[in-house]
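Sample pair:
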Amino acid sequence: MLADDDGADVQSGGFSPDLHHPKAWLHQLIDFILDQLPAWRDRPGRRAADSETQLTSQLCAHLNGVARKSSGWDVLQFRIEEPDETKLARRIDLIAAPAGEVIWIEGRRHDDFDPLLPIECKRLPTPKGKDRDKREYLRVANGSTGGVQRFKAGLHGAAHEQAVMIAYVQAGGIAAWIQRLDCWIRTLSRAGISGWSCDDRLNTVSHDALRRVAVLSSEHERELTLPRIGLRHLWIEM
């Protein structure tokens, strides 16, 4: 549920007066998504799925249904495979955007066509394949399909300073993956891989073993003279 914001005029239906939110509102939105992850995973009738595309499509449908019926969040819509705002040839896995409203955040205007929050989704472990890299959540050795890598390079979310990565943990458990990714980042740093250092490490914010979800955070320097970007990592054991 959306916490009350001073000066925020939240209305539903039609085109209401513009909504003004502080930057912290994005963290409330991220908390809303986090809260819905286990509800979506455990939802009766949800069809079994393994692929990233299927899982993200299901999650998008769930978030839209819940947002539409939730006071304060009914001003939002979620969409999949959206073109990036600055790199139109590239697709964002999932976005949150206004739904028939104009939402201002820190002086920036957003309407139906402007993503509020870009979201990249990955499976852990990375599916095996000829051209797949086990460290794909972070980076790939040959290519630009790494999750964190895309944000660091400005290939995703260049117009944003806050983004989200969702991990569908399908084997190994959250605790093991926290250690594994930390080891990988340290290895990238020691190997002198361009653009990577221990400053890119993920910090655990919370880990709910009962609901099998976790939140991690990271901040990254970006290329193209872009400002640093903050990532919230929402992990759910499937």
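Residues 25-41 form the longest helix (17 residues).
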